[in-house]
Design brief:
- Helix content is 63%, strand content 10%.
- The chain has a four-stranded mixed β-sheet with strand order 1-2-3-4, with helices on one face.
- It is α+β, with helices and mostly antiparallel strands.
- The N terminus and C terminus are likely disordered.
């Protein structure tokens, strides 16, 4: 007895592609302006930011491509579809961002010992443009919920903050000759971003390894099912995530009453009702009858001789 209901929210899915596309074109165009500007103003900070932005553009382009692929329907081989590609994108982006930050540090630290004066007027102009472009792109991505969009949002916030730093330094340098301010600020904001991105990469890695996306949600699901009438216990409760947003649940529910078709329908309707608030993308629920051994325990042969009700809900 099987019922299958799978829902994928295509509207929000399509939106994340559009948002990421916006961010990509804004960033890419601006990176080119930056390289020229950095060269014209003799500012190593702006050059460093330009390389950083180039890395951002590449990873945003990758994320855009992967999030588009992620909306393809499931196939015989990839039965869950391609949602996990966006997790992979988030992982690669995070790593590019970490490498980029290390590169900025390698540029900024030597300048502490040998600072040079840049063309401050050009720096101020570029910084204002940088804040506007990255701020707008970050605003465009702000509504996103996927891991991919969160990592990209950090890219853009990082860039906007970088430009705020450049602006402050450029204004100060315009009036005072303290060229060392430039590398100091760039090191400060790079460290701040590194800490946040490392956190995201660790979180993404945990989802990759099929860790529980949220421990409190898992507990709530468990309590919702255990509080049902006739439910003795649960085992093999597996709760994991496709992309940080679309979650999957499989569970064995041990019941303590005899069931006919009508009773089974009632139990299934009740499980459906209890799980509805969690908006799960895929759920598989198996009922185990009184005294019946669990099929997934060691004694496979013995367990297979028993009749099982296997059921998909949602």
């Amino acid at each position: 007895m099987h019922n299958h209901h799978h829902h994928v929210d295509t509207t929000s899915s399509k939106e994340d592609s559009t948002r990421i596309g916006w961010a990509f074109w804004l960033n890419f165009t601006f990176t080119i302006i930056e390289f020229i500007g950095g060269w014209l103003t003799n500012s190593v900070a702006i050059m460093a930011d330009a390389v950083h932005d180039l890395g951002d553009s590449l990873s945003i382009g990758l994320a855009w491509y992967l999030s588009k692929l992620g909306h393809k329907a499931s196939t015989e081989k990839y039965t869950y579809g391609f949602k996990r590609l966006s997790l992979m994108g988030a992982m690669i982006n995070g790593l590019i961002l970490i490498l980029g930050s290390i590169w900025v540090m390698s540029q900024a630290i030597p300048r502490l010992y040998n600072p040079e004066m840049p063309v401050t007027e050009g720096m101020i102009g570029l910084a204002v443009l940088g804040i506007l472009v990255n701020g707008f792109a970050a605003y465009k991505l702000h509504g996103g919920h996927t891991m991919n969009e969160k990592v990209l949002n950090w890219h853009l916030i990082e860039d906007a903050m970088g430009w705020v730093a450049v602006l402050v330094v450029a204004i100060v340098l315009h009036f005072v000759e303290w060229p060392i301010l430039d590398p100091i600020l760039s090191i400060g904001f790079t460290l701040f971003i590194l800490i946040n991105v490392v956190r995201y990469v660790v979180q993404t890695m945990s989802l990759f390894l099929q860790g529980v996306p949220d421990v409190s949600t898992r507990k709530a699901i468990s309590q919702a099912l255990l509080s049902m009438e006739h439910v003795e216990e649960l085992h093999h409760l597996h709760f994991w995530s496709l992309d940080g947003e679309q979650h999957v649940l499989t569970v064995h529910v041990v019941i303590n009453c005899a069931v006919d078709n009508e009773k089974l329908r009632q139990l299934k309707a009740e499980v459906h009702k209890r799980l509805a608030p969690f908006a799960l993308a895929h759920t598989t629920v198996e009922f185990e009858l009184p005294g019946e051994p669990c099929r997934d325990e060691n004694d496979h042969l013995h367990a297979h001789s028993h009749h099982h009700e296997h059921d998909e809900i949602n």
